[in-house]
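Appendix B. Raw example, untouched.
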Amino acid sequence: MAKLILSMDGLVLKEVPLTKERTTIGRRPHNDIVIDNLAVSGEHAVIVTILNDSFLEDLGSTNGTMVNSQPIKKHFLQNNDMVELGKYKLKFVADAARATSANDFEKTMVLRPGMMPKPATPAAAAPAAAAFSPTTTQPQAQPAGAAPAPPPVAAAAAGPQAVIQILNGPNAGKELSLTKALTTLGRPGVQVAVITRRPQGYFITHVEGATFPVVNGKTLTLEAHALNNHDILELSGTKMEFFFK
């Protein structure tokens, strides 16, 4: 289980296991991690934990949130990251599963014109699929005699392949196969949600933004929502259909 180690001036104050989907940090007493210091806002930041991944989001705090001495608005936490809130520090310590799950994280897919792939010809099918997530690291060639790289997690998953299809805007008709255990959708700084593949099926969870995703005309809550075949999603002004091939 991942945890946070709260310290100040090198003195460890307490350890907080990340057992909840949303762990709030702030000065007010209703937060999960209460830091009673004027440099910390009432509702300063939140950590959203889904499967083996944790996201830190600054909630518009007065003095901001730093990770490894860099200001952030939203950050994908990795083992040994140091979150800085004024004089206080929160060290993120991942368990073994989290520490080795970085390759299963898909970068944010930004839904804006020009970012979606053109229809692929047979010779260009693989590069076109990768264009949905332009920042995703491409596989490297294997040296001669080296053991083959393990297949993607989704390759071993039972059941039909889940797909998201864009229904409106300039990218209407384009599809994204949900081949990762976690796929991030939306516009950073505006609205972001994640779709996770679990043993029970696919779930969508709100991560960032004041406006929550809408599924079949119903606005979601903070809880993860199970997706069903042919559900209609609305996110950042984009309508999408979730279905199985």
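End of appendix B.
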